[in-house]
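User: structure tokens for this one?
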Amino acid sequence: MSVAVMNPIVQSSAASALLQLDEPEVILQSHALRILNSLADSFWPEISPSVAKIQDLSEKPSFPDAKLASLVAAKILFHLGDLDEALAYALRAEELFSISDATEFATTLRAKCIDEYIIMRNKPENETANDGKAQGIADDLGFEENKRMAALEDVVQKVLDSCIKNGEVRESIGVAIEAKMHDRLEQAIQSCASRDERIAALNYCFECSQSLVASRRYRAEVLKLIADMHRREEDPDEVALANCLSFLEDAERLAELLEGLVMSDDESKRLAAIQIAFNVHDNDTPRFFDKVVALFVSKEKTEGEATTEDSTRKEARQQIKDILSGSIPSSLTLDFLSNYSKADSYILQTIKSTQDSRSSVCHSALLFTNAIMHGGTAIDSFLRDNLEWLALATSWAKFSATSCLGVIHARHTASALNLLSPYLATQGGASSAYSEGGALYALGLMFANGGSQKLQRPESATPADGSGTSEAVTASEYLLAALRRESGNEVVQHGACLGLGLAAMGSWDGVDDNDIYEELKLTLFRDSAVAGEAAGLAMGLVSIGNGSEKALEEMLTYAEETEHEKIIRGLALGMALTCYGREDDAEEIIETMSSSKEPILRYGAMYAVAMAYCGTADNKAIRKLLYTAVTDVSDDVRRAAVICLGFVLFRHPKQVPKIVALSADSCFPHVR
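Assistant:
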């Protein structure tokens, strides 16, 4: 006996459902929409001519299945490629729009939802053309902004809940950071089961704050949250916590952290404190780690009143102070470079033997070659073996020859005055103004970023201030005294300003009065082209990264008033250095300099962009530089704009060839 088997019905068309959609009865229209909802992904070309009818039903308040109509309309519009309108109708569908479905429709609109929500959350800082377009669609649908925002937030909250439930912590961290949802960011990190997972999540959050967050202020908020969560851990990652505090420039808490680690009985904690000290010295400005040292020493005195430290803690404490002051890093770097130098002096001798002794250009070039080859190694045998040849240098070539000693002996601070005493009048040396100016510049190169270190003066030396006292002074104090003493010699002033700027680099916070900055300003106001150029640059070095409005206003005003191009150039670069790392905070001065009629100030504006957005790959900065590279009338400004792309993109080298490809084919040789 045969048994009849019923085959499942395979829908081959949406025609019957579309006919029911045209019926006046509401129950038939609702039935048609349920069928069309199941067929939309397959038969959307057939359904699309009726999308207007479906949209009308979705907007009727009296229609009981308006949400279902919105969902069907969203699916058809999605397949037609209108994602903005599809999203608007999907949001009107409310709970019927399931974000957990694995369909292309759900995943695409879910991502679109997140993007739209992030744009709207960042709208006060980032107005875009897409905002207006999306808002226009919402208005057309009678979907006001607040309701749209609530609907988007509901979807994003569901997405984050799903990510946390499925253990996708990194995905939820990325969305929470971009959408500025601090509560969900904290929840995502706390959802990690173990301490190691939470620390890994916090470290990933730190990386995201550096790569995803464009706003400097918001980045600080995220880092503050990360630091707070690190502190809540029973066994926190002290190095990661210190990184956050360094970026926040929170010297007080960093000093407390170092003090706690030093006082710990655990040897690994004391080693962590030493590593933190190295990180702070390598990555932060002198004004910051000077504050840390001062606070650390004050806490040492407080602790010393209550207890007597053992030798191990005292040793660790002294090591941290020496690291932050720069003496240990300088010594280690000098030892490494001198012990592992691969420079071949035979190459230098060969080049020297083929040179025309009358060519000052070739003479200076070989001096610079030797300085770069032996930079930081303290190996000056080539100069000592060729003293007669070295004596051929005259005028500014002699200045350069002497300053090259600072490059070769960089960080060789213990013997700085012994090496330079033959060229310094205060140390009993008989030299020309060019040699003395070069020696002061060399001293700054030796103590670059470490002007607070003490100078070890030779026994027979005369103090720079002429006081007759043999009390040790810092490199910055010595150079400051030299600058004050040589008020009538612009060549020596030039070297003293450059050396002082290097030694005191980043030492001024831009708030309190600073003797070094004020003395450099006095040198600038004497309106000497040679000394003023160096003074302007040194003012920028001293105030590097502080963004001081006072300093920027003074430098800009004087640059607009003076007639010396050298001074304008020095001040332009000084203003650029002051903007270092300031990002959006530097926009006002950048715009002012960019709109100047003086090409040297526009030239400085390009470097201000480079310094303000250094390493950030910021799109706004890149667009400005590219625009200037093709529109400015000055060859120097165009060239500077292209060069500065390298500063902005130095952490993203693979992007550089693509961005400069068109500039490489420019008709302007300076741009090429």
